[in-house]
Design goal:
Elements: E1 2-3, H1 7-10, H2 13-16, H3 26-37, E2 46-47, H4 50-57, E3 64-67, H5 71-81, E4 87-90, H6 94-101
Parallel strand pairs: 3-4
Antiparallel strand pairs: 1-2
């Protein structure tokens, strides 16, 4: 989980936080609900991060391969997903890993790069 005070949060979710989303598409509303669940009292204090969000959104039959090049961040990522068999965390450049995994066994894929 990243602190919402990071620059990434200020220029990302921070720009959206507190606005009205009554007309938001269902997928976007679900994303906001996940972020809101991490924050009490209506204030943006913490951001769960894309691996946590992905874990919450994956269906039972889906799988995810996450890449993190830096050793410290890879260790954190591995701890986050180790209990979930749908996930694997690889210490590798994400672009290299993506090329190695295509085409996927399932014949469908989503590549999310952040």
């Amino acid at each position: 989980r990243l602190s919402a005070t990071h620059q990434e949060a200020a220029t990302g979710i921070g720009l959206l936080w507190g606005r009205e989303f009554r007309d938001a598409p269902a997928a976007f509303a679900r994303y906001l609900a996940l972020v809101q669940a991490f924050n009490s009292g209506g204030r943006l204090r913490r951001y769960p991060g894309s691996p946590w969000i992905a874990r919450e959104l994956l269906r039972p039959g889906d799988r995810a391969v996450l890449a993190e090049l830096h050793a410290v961040d890879h260790a954190k990522l591995s701890r986050l997903v180790r209990a979930d068999r749908r996930f694997s965390a690889v210490q590798q450049d994400g672009y290299e890993l993506l090329r190695a995994l295509l085409p996927p066994i399932e014949r469908r894929a989503l590549a999310f790069i952040d």
